[in-house]
Amino acid sequence: MYRERIKDNRVVYLNGKLVNDVTQEPAFKGAIDCIQEYYTLQHKHPQMYTFVDENGIRTHISLLIPKTKEDLRRKRKAFKSIADISYGMLGRTPDFMNSALATISAHSKVLGSGKYTDYSKNIVEYYNFVKKENLFVGHGAINPQINRSIPLGEQNNDYAAVRVISHDSDGIVVKGAKMIVTLAPIADELLIFNMPGLKPGDEDYAVAFALPVNHPGVKIICRKPLVKESFSDFDYPIANSFDEIDAYLLLDNVHIPWNRVFVFKDVQKSNIFYDKTFARNHTGHQGIVRGLSKAEFLTGTTIKLAEVLGLNGFINVQEKLGELTSYIELLKASILLSEEEASMSEEGVLNPSISAIQAIRYNFPKMYERMVKHIQSLAAGSMLSTPHSGDFSNENKEVLMTSLSNDMVDAKDRSKLLNLAWDVSGDGFGQRQLMYEYYHAGDPMRIAAVHYLTYQKDHMLNMVERALARNEDNKVFLSC
């Protein structure tokens, strides 16, 4: 069982203290409950959430290597259902990295082999291991921002990234750090790799491997939790259940056996690890489906606020609500487009359209910010003067129930809704979610620039050339 697996000797620090048992830590409880539900659903509804591979192993559908559009649709339905558990607030549930492992395994030949091991074989065997054990794999791919003006190979800091410090016939020894290793404290395993961008001279950092979270030498230092332990779910309806803890990962002289190594001191292989295996396409597919769930939740919250505060009859408010409902349809359309325009790789894998995915990854943060702003504008001062849950059980109850109730909702339900609005738009939890949507997929500026550079523009440019080539004899005039 998942909960039992993560009761081990992993080294996790929270609020400056070593956590003895992550399953008993209140800051992790909500996320653990969600991950447990991910596993429970596989038993309750195996037809939807699992598949049987060629070896007869039944495992989660997110690990399916898609060959058809129906495969992508099956995965999408599971992605959406899993995202709905947390209202889209947990972005790094097991299905995220599962989708990457499936396609990296299928395209493993790009990793090749070396003196000590066969990297292609290693990733295939690791994928099969994750399938068989049904593990939760987190990942660490982002290097700490120590000094971005200097290449990694010239950094004078042992923790600027993860680097190889030695190797022998048994394996490699690594040291360094990764940041924003989301949900690492409660994962089974971690996949460590680099995003594209290494340069010649960075060979020591050009590495990819997997290891258990409780592996010797692994230390996880969590950011400050956003859970309010002294408050009830009435006061913090979302933050207390769905704080997706981010962490700083430290590796100190960690030994990795060769069969767990996928890239070794090879800049070119490190740079293609995520993109040439189409991992970005498949994690992106999961990501925009999760984004839809989150958009539906914030849009529903905004509509509910407008209703209970008596604002939904005003045309300017209706415009705001219509803006948000139109976002929902645009997100749905882009998800379907990513599947409809999926392309088949030489390995026979159907990969969702990266153009459709990256278009949403660039625009969704702006949509999400608008959702947050609309919640803030509608709730406004009301959510800044919401009583504590305790005031509905002390001498203030009667006057609050009288003064804050209306024909649509009583004071207690009104207050809980306003607390939800504050949770998702104003408090630390809401601001972390906004920040996450802007940057979890990379720098928005670079996403847009790469979208332009790689987009198929020939048809559009040909239209312009055809229009410019028209001469006076070809003009068409409308008769009056």
- Largest sheet data: 6 strands, mixed
Name of the CATH superfamily of the largest domain:
Butyryl-CoA Dehydrogenase, subunit A, domain 2
**Beta-strand residue percentage:** 5-15%
Report the helical percentage. 40-55%
The number of helical elements comes to: 16
Order of helices and strands: HEEHHEEHHHEEEEEEHEEHHHEEHHHHHH
Strand-pairing-aware structural class: alpha+beta
Mean of residue pLDDT values: 95
Taking all Cα atoms into account, the compactness measure Rg is 25 Å
How far apart lie the N and C ends? Answer: 78 Å
Strand order of the largest sheet: 2-1-10-11-7-6
CATH level-3 fold name of the largest domain:
Butyryl-CoA Dehydrogenase, subunit A, domain 2
DSSP strand count: 14
Identify the overall geometry.
Answer: globular
How many individual domains? 2
Description:
By secondary structure, the chain is of the alpha+beta class. The chain folds into two domains: 271 residues, Butyryl-CoA Dehydrogenase, subunit A, domain 2 (Beta Barrel), CATH 2.40.110.10; 178 residues, Up-down Bundle (Butyryl-CoA Dehydrogenase, subunit A, domain 3). Helix content is 46%, strand content 13%. It is built from 16 helices and 14 strands. A hairpin with a 5-residue loop joins strand 3 and strand 4. The longest helix is centred in the middle third of the chain and has 30 residues.
